[in-house]
Design a protein that fits this description.
Elements (H helix, E strand, L loop, with lengths): L3 H6 L2 H26 L3 H4 L7 H51 L11 H46 L4 H15 L2 E3 L5 E3 H28 L3 E4 L17 H4 L3 E3 L9 H5 L16 E3 L12 H37 L3 H31 L16 H19 L1
Antiparallel strand pairs: 1-2, 3-4, 3-5
Helix pairs in contact: 2-4, 2-5, 2-6, 2-7, 2-10, 4-5, 4-7, 5-6, 5-7, 6-10, 6-11, 10-11, 11-12
């Protein structure tokens, strides 16, 4: 069994790698936009310099650079996923094997079981392949984002609808605000960070569950105990697998040898919305039908925490998105050669930095009012270091002082 707090944080190193890739992609897109269009009207109105052929050629170069970065980070990600899988496999059996030992059984160590090591290998391969699939989609989305932004900026500038500076400014802000998203066949869109979190957490949860089931087969064990945590999803609130609060922290029967409810029917184990399904933080292990460390979970408190957690995560997503926008605007300013455009981008940067300061305050106020911890680690994005933070604080102060004049 893996505890919920472990599954909550197990994907963080992989998310950091994904965040690094997202930051790189956005910086490459914005730098190319600014360097290509932000050279003034003399450049914009030179027909030979603006053509679909030249834009597509540059987008191809962008794609090559992103593909090279993905290849580099994929090697790092593969090592991280493999290490996380191995550690999770060991930890899952730490709890389980203690229960078996207390019952007088002697399970063999994980490393001595060819089958269990193959389970870890399968979990690693599935998760690593998923990462490679959606990073490929991300590269294609980045290319499309660049072409669309450049084409729109040129069209606006050449038509006289806005100034060249404003056209570039709008393109940069749009890329900064929207980011680059992965689109699934279902039409759902996610950032690469969110997709990575879901893939790694789900992959590890499912791998550890398979190990737990395999060990139970070895021990001919029937009774299962599901883990529990405050803030568990409630689905439609009914007594069904989608309501994790309903079945968490319960003893269940795997083989029908005891009087506890059926494990699969109750939890929906093996389905997308059930136990060990997509992004589920619950796990399970062998139970003795008596000792339950999760029995004191307060259902009323859990529902309150679920609601507060949703609000807290929404505030955190908002902060990360604004940080990324501020970061991208800083990249554009540093790459810009046109003084008017640089000045305009600086105004956008100052305004967004002020918004970020307000969002940070709202987040801390919300946590204080509701007795929640400030989870600064969940506000991080790749490349946001002390220098970036200090520059944003200075810009926020500058904007605030200008507003108050």
């Amino acid at each position: 069994m893996l505890y919920p707090d472990y599954l909550l944080r197990v994907s963080e190193p992989s998310e950091e790698i994904a965040s690094e890739l997202h930051a790189y992609i956005l910086s490459q897109i914005v730098e190319r936009i600014v360097l290509r269009i932000g050279r003034g009207d003399d450049y914009i109105f030179t027909p030979r310099d603006y053509s679909q052929v030249s834009i597509l050629q540059e987008s191809g170069e962008l794609m090559e650079d992103i593909a090279a970065e993905i290849a580099k980070l994929t090697k790092v990600q593969q090592k991280e996923i493999l290490a996380a899988m191995n550690e999770a496999g060991v930890k899952a059996l730490e709890y389980d094997d203690k229960v078996y030992a207390d019952a007088g059984l002697s399970p063999i160590p994980l490393q001595q079981s060819p089958y269990l090591t193959r389970v870890i290998e399968r979990g690693y391969n599935a998760t690593a392949n998923e990462w490679e699939n959606f990073t490929r989609t991300t590269a294609q989305a980045a290319q499309q984002t660049f072409v669309k932004a450049v084409d729109k900026a040129y069209t606006l500038a050449v038509s006289g609808a806005v100034s060249t500076s404003q056209a570039v400014r709008e393109a940069v802000n749009e890329v900064a605000q929207d980011g680059v998203y992965i689109e699934y066949p279902s039409g759902r869109k996610d950032t690469i960070e969110t997709a990575t979190l879901r893939a790694v957490r789900t992959g590890i949860a499912q791998m550890s569950s398979e190990i737990t089931i395999a060990r139970m087969d070895e021990m001919d064990w029937d009774i299962i105990l599901t883990s529990a945590h405050l803030g568990a999803r409630t689905g439609d609130g009914g007594e069904n697998p989608g309501n994790h609060e309903w079945w968490q922290g319960k003893f269940l029967s795997r083989l029908g040898k005891s009087n506890f409810p059926d494990f699969v029917k109750t939890t929906g184990y093996g389905t997308v919305t059930g136990l060990s399904g997509t992004n589920c933080r619950h796990s399970f292990g062998p139970g003795d039908g008596k000792h339950n460390p999760f029995k004191d979970i307060d259902t009323g408190e859990s529902r309150k925490i679920e609601k507060l957690n949703k609000q807290q995560r929404a505030l955190e997503r908002r902060i990360r998105k604004t940080k990324r926008t501020v970061q991208v605007l800083k990249t554009a300013i540093d790459a810009c050669k046109d003084e008017q455009l640089k000045f305009d981008l600086q105004q956008d940067y100052d305004k967004k930095s002020f918004l970020l300061s307000q969002q940070n305050k709202a987040y801390r106020d919300f946590n204080e009012e509701n007795g929640l911890r400030n989870l600064d680690d969940r506000l991080r994005i790749a490349g946001w270091d002390r220098e970036q933070a200090a520059a944003a604080r200075g810009a926020a102060t500058r904007y605030k002082n200008l507003k108050e004049k």
